[in-house]
Hydroxymethylglutaryl-CoA lyase
Amino acid sequence: MTNVQLIEVGPRDGLQNEQKLLSVDDKVELITRSVEAGVRRVEAVSFVNPKRVPQMAGAEEVMSRVPRVDGVSYIGLVLNRRGLDRALDAAVDEVNVVVVATEEFSRRNQGCSVDEGIAAAVDVVGDARAAGLATTVTIAVSFGCPFTGEVDPDRISEIVARLTDGAAPDEIALADTIGVGVPAQVRTLAELTTARAPGIPQRWHFHNTRNTGYANALAALEMGAHALDSSIGGFGGCPFAPAATGNIASEDLLYALDRSDIVTGVDMSALIAAAEWLGKALDKNVPALLGRAGAFPAPR
């Protein structure tokens, strides 16, 4: 029997590309439902400029109202020192710092070069650790970029080395930001990352744009993944990803994990109910499939 952490990113990545803006009340409700379902790590907020990403407005108010439960860790996404200052003031438990692997995506998404992004991440990790926070660095577009195409795995290996040489984070996350990856790439990147950053747990972030997200997640588990990101209902998507269909869905992923005897501590029926609620809140159909087909065997 294997254990893996299921990290709920719906309150952050699941909402950042939605046309309908949820209220603070609704964001807190989504986070509360995640915690009540048994999720113990929630990427709850993003400390970005709300003028650029209005879906992420109200981060401080959200954090002031989330349920503080023993064993539950709230993650805030940050891009720079200003974001870290906000995260510290809001009393998050962890920070997730994003570095982008390609120049054009980095400049469009974060307004800086890759080198500048790496330097900022190293500084943020060091300062966050000094403040007692756990740290993750996510390498975005690790599998492919919408502007420059294929990303050389050696490029990711180089970025991992630079990050760990600077101020090694507690966790490294590799993100298929636009949903182009396949399991063979997962295995390659896992091996390279392990070689460059031995002993640092690996977290993986998959989108299901081309219906490979779940296969990629299972491949990551085979390679020793410590944690997997997913989004309730399968909502989400990158603003720069054409025809994005969302993150892998928490409930669909949980079905595959449960049936594979992999323990997460998360309740499937509670996730299905949360997805139905979120679909109504967003006025959208739920992309995930489990809520339609149901679990197997059917609960008695």
In short: The mean pLDDT is 95.
